[in-house]
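Chain A, query sequence.
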Amino acid sequence: MVRDEPRTAPPHELVLKSWNDSGCHTHLLGCSVTRQALLIDPKAGKQAVYEKALADYRLTLAGVVDTHTHADHLSDSAAWIARGVRCFMGQATGCQRAVARLRDGDSIEVGRLRFRVLEVPGHTQDSIALAGHGVVVTGDTLMVGGLARADFRGSDPAQLFDGVRKKLLSLPDATVVLPGHGYQDILFTTIGHERAHNPALQHTSGRAYADALKAVAGAGNSPDVDATLALNLVADPALPDAPVAVAACCSVGGASIAGHTVREQSCQELAPRLAEIAARGDWIDVRDPWELSSDGRLPGVANFPLSELGFALETLRAHPPEVVSCKSGARSAIAVKTLVYLGVLRDPISMAGGFGKWKASGLPIA
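Chain A, predicted structure.
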């Protein structure tokens, strides 16, 4: 059986694009009807990347959200505010920028989309999450396999644990979790998977979690962290041209995720088997849909964009693909690691070199 083409659409007219840059995630959520979009946790120095995605998806940016005052990397919110884009933060923020302050229970509307604001303090006191349309953007609260670190000044691990349990774990199990960070090439997770497998959430209470964590308040505030915080609080910061992350934001003392060694094969090895594998529906391409239109596609291979894979978990679990490909091999490796972590796939093949190598080798394309 060949999977239907084009890709399986995400629910409720949602357009989703996520980036992982040095462990820092940024998410673009758009309405496919009105073409309005929301950019969440943009990094300074990456504006051209976001502008290209907006153009590729034919979206207009309606708002920017910082889920909290970042300690590890510089926010790009000031630049977007200067361009007239509305910016949102939690009501407890100390940021001096012209931001709309969101309280628990508020909503952000983007075209036909509506996301509910959930206050989840503990990593910082201004931390918020956004939930709606089958996803929850968790910022630095619930992470893949852990919680956000809670050893900065003002952090409270017990408060963080209790907030995640009360506000986030009350969401349906199938809810796709879009965290603010990921350091092991896992792009997203689900509420159900974290409820069952996240070691940080197996404690009986916030106090028990804090006692086990043994985080020392302020221990994470290195000089670089303090300098980053200061720049993220001022109204008009002078930012470097190529800023870098200065800290990791996953929980201190949390159990690490077991790594998965991605099995690769070259396009020359896979080319003789393309027709056979594609006919069974056992090969997926995780490039963005506009890439297939501009660059071409592998004959008979269905498109499941990487950022939207969370909406296709049951489809993929029922019919696990044997081969995953993308443009260069980087995104297919991330897809493999993410789907293996979630127990959807066991040991699929990632095509080394991706579609770019396939095309350059003169192999057949549609």
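The chain is about 25% helix and 25% strand. The chain has two domains: 11-233, 263-360.
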